[in-house]
Amino acid sequence: MVHGYVTKKSLNSVRKKAEKGDMVAQCYLGVSYLDGQGVEKDVNEGLKWLKMSADQNYEIALVSLGRFYMYGVDVDRDVDKATKCFRKAAEKGNSEAQLYLGQILLYDKDVEQNEAEGIFWLKKSAEDGCPVANINMCELCHNGKTDWSLDQFKASMEQTKLKSYPCEECENFIETGERLKCFFGKAK
């Protein structure tokens, strides 16, 4: 497997593990089919394996499936299904799921918004070092919705430096880093 995908060389061994119920193998096989990496793209086959893994509460599968539904990739967008996936993973402490759940609850027009719960999840994600959640918290502070402080912002950014952050959105954000500069002066 390479970066969460099966390769043609590993396909048979990963499939055997997946068929025996290995949730990690099921997840990688599902994502590979959904993205057409190492195998021919097959959305139905990908969803089948990813759902099996998510049914075992594998956090990476829950987040992957949640993003799939949230963005409506190759299927109709289903924010309710996305929210359920993100909630399960968020409750297990997955900061990427906490970020997405917080954003959905605060900003998504297709679900009943819940500002207090959205801020709760964004804060948990930011405290774990998620830079995108941190910026969301700073924006909320700037708009008078929370009291996220400059010290909390800096502490969260230190957390980010201490680990390799797995969230693709955050990795892209860290690379550009331009928005960080504008919020240092605006956070309370």
Descriptive report:
This protein has helices at about 10-20, 25-35, 45-55, 60-70, 80-90, 95-105, 115-125, 130-140, 150-160, 170-175, 180-185. It is an all-alpha fold. Helix 7 packs across helix 8. Mean pLDDT is about 80; it is low at about 175-188.
Please render the helix and strand layout as text.
Blueprint: H1 11-19, H2 23-35, H3 43-55, H4 59-71, H5 79-91, H6 95-107, H7 115-127, H8 131-142, H9 150-162, H10 168-176, H11 178-184
Helix pairs in contact: 1-2, 2-3, 3-4, 4-5, 5-6, 6-7, 7-8, 8-9
Helix content range? 55-70%
Mean pLDDT: 81
Shape verdict: elongated
Cα-atom Rg, whole angstroms?
A: 18 Å
Order of helices and strands: HHHHHHHHHHH
Structural class: mainly alpha
- Beta-strand content estimate: under 5%
Q: How is the biggest beta sheet arranged?
A: none
Number of strands: 0
N-to-C span: 45 Å
